[in-house]
Design a protein that fits this description.
The protein has three helices and five strands, in the order βαββαββα.
Length: 127
């Protein structure tokens, strides 16, 4: 039994990124379920404890059996909350509910994000 070597551009399973305080970066903007051609992403927003100013996902689920691994959700995310760079293949399951990735399982694969709001700015060529 030999382990299959995936191509360099293999995306892998989804993961959710975390802020410095450990909270999910997702603000439930609904860009990823809107752009998803397979309609496999379910987000139900909720208000945060931070005076109700910002939203967060109360439920964030991805049905990996419906996902076509296109990566459009990653490209559409304005706050670097979702990535597909784990390099892990979807695990075999015996029932459909075992194939649904929840917010907790995707956060377990995630790390703290190093992305900054606004990027490098207009002076990125000066470096």
């Amino acid at each position: 039994e030999e382990k299959f070597i995936y191509p360099e551009r293999f995306r892998g399973l989804h993961r959710l990124m975390q802020r410095d305080d450990g909270a999910v970066r997702c603000v439930a903007c609904m860009c990823c379920p809107t752009v998803c051609p397979a309609h496999c992403i379910t987000i139900i927003p909720a208000q945060t404890d931070d005076k109700g100013i910002e939203k967060m996902p109360a439920i964030f689920e991805i049905d990996e059996l419906r996902c076509v691994v296109c990566g459009l959700c990653v490209e559409a995310c304005p706050c670097d909350a979702i990535r597909m760079d784990t390099g892990q293949h979807a695990h075999p399951v015996e029932s459909r509910e075992q194939a649904v990735e929840t917010r907790e399982t995707m956060l377990a694969r995630g790390i703290k994000s190093t992305a900054v709001q606004g990027g490098a700015g207009s002076s990125w060529r000066d470096k």
